[in-house]
Amino acid sequence: MRFIKIEQKEAAGVLAETLQSALKQSVPVTWFLSGGSNIDITIAAMEQLPEELTKNLILAQVDERYGSVGHPDSNWKQLLDAGLNIKQARAMPILHDPELPLIDTAAITAKMTGELIKRTYTIGQFGVGSDYHIAGIKPDSPACIARDLAVGYEWTDFKRITITFDAIRQMNRVLTFMFGETKKPVLDSLMNEHHQPLAQPVQILKSIDSSVVYNDQLGEELTV
Q1: What gap in Å lies between CA 196 and CA 20, rounded to an integer?
Q2: Which of 85, 156, 189, 208 is surrounded by the most beta carbons within 10 Å?
Q3: pTM confidence score
């Protein structure tokens, strides 16, 4: 795992460059998208991708808030409402069947995630919450101990569907973006302390060689 210090305005360019490099190899590429604090980065990075390259791009999600398709709290709806231009990519949102129960939607997500990891080059884009969660993996939640590649569970805020630690470990590239003073305690803990992922799910990044944490607080400088 590496820490690289950049300005927040540079994040989209770093992400777009990573995606373009993979897409230029003429192999299918899956981009696992995050919502929340990463929405603006996602949209700006997609805008920078040449239209032609997006033919080989698949858009998937690292997590979703369960409910009817297009419900107001949906991460996918928020991405679309914020202006995500899919271009020629293939979109595979987690919520696609309004009649599927949580457990069945999670099972389909796990199967889909496994196929994408097996058959495509995978790039995971993540943010981290001030409570140390990554993707939809909340501290001390069932997602921390799930054995499949995705899991559904009910939490204090939402019913959630998320990829799991095993899925993150199997991705080809893992890029995490954290900006602002509120994220500094999380960065300090990740860099200087040792905690079990059950208590701080973000700690899973330490077990991933390809993981890079881009932030505006700590780490080596990157010229872009």
Answers
A1: 34
A2: 208
A3: 0.95
